[in-house]
Amino acid sequence: MPNVDLPALYAEFESWVFPDSWTSREHAGLTVTSDAGGHAIVLAASEEFWDDHDGSAAQAAWESLEPLCRDYEAAAIAVWGDPHPVDVTRRLARGESSPFTELLIAHGTIKGRFWDRGERALGLSVAQIDKEMAIQVIAFIVPAAELSL
């Protein structure tokens, strides 16, 4: 069951300025990284997998975090309706880069489900930067214009 109220989280972060350079901080017990592309808030994370040689611990973590992300998505759908799937693969294949794509890649994902909230959007994704690193459920708050590019 989600333990972070997404509408309240969005209301708090929607007015935060997107910084020009990479910043990382703790806020209300959550790790937040930000750049000109938006804010990434880690809602949940597994342990790291340095000794997971057969991948079984990582698989178990994915199996526990994906349903949690779906619970967050269901809560967002109940409030804001259906999300927009966003996948930046084509942008990257065309050689396009932006602070938004860099924010997603820096967190180990190239796609997510996003809710347009006017000037900004809230997105959710399960991501992993590298096979030894933690798997994370991440909320992204980004410029809504990125959803249509």
Describe the structure.
31% of the residues lie in helices and 32% in strands. It is of the alpha+beta class and 149 residues long. A seven-stranded antiparallel sheet has the order 1-2-3-7-6-5-4. The termini are far apart. The model has no long low-confidence stretch (mean pLDDT 92).
Compact summary:
With 149 residues, the protein is of the alpha+beta class.
Helix content: 25-40%
Structural class call reads alpha+beta
Q: Radius of gyration, Cα only, in angstroms? A: 15 Å
Order of H and E elements: HEEEHEHHEEE
- How would the global form be characterised? globular
How far apart are the termini? 33 Å
* β-strand number: 7
* Biggest sheet layout: 7 strands, antiparallel
The low-confidence parts are: none
**How large a portion of the residues is in β-strands, by DSSP E?**
25-35%
> How much is the average pLDDT?
92
Write a concise keyword list for the protein shown above.
31% helix; alpha+beta; 149 residues
Chain-wise SSE layout:
Blueprint: H1 6-13, E1 23-27, E2 30-35, E3 38-45, H2 56-80, E4 84-87, H3 89-93, H4 99-106, E5 111-116, E6 120-128, E7 135-143
Antiparallel strand pairs: 1-2, 2-3, 3-7, 4-5, 5-6, 6-7
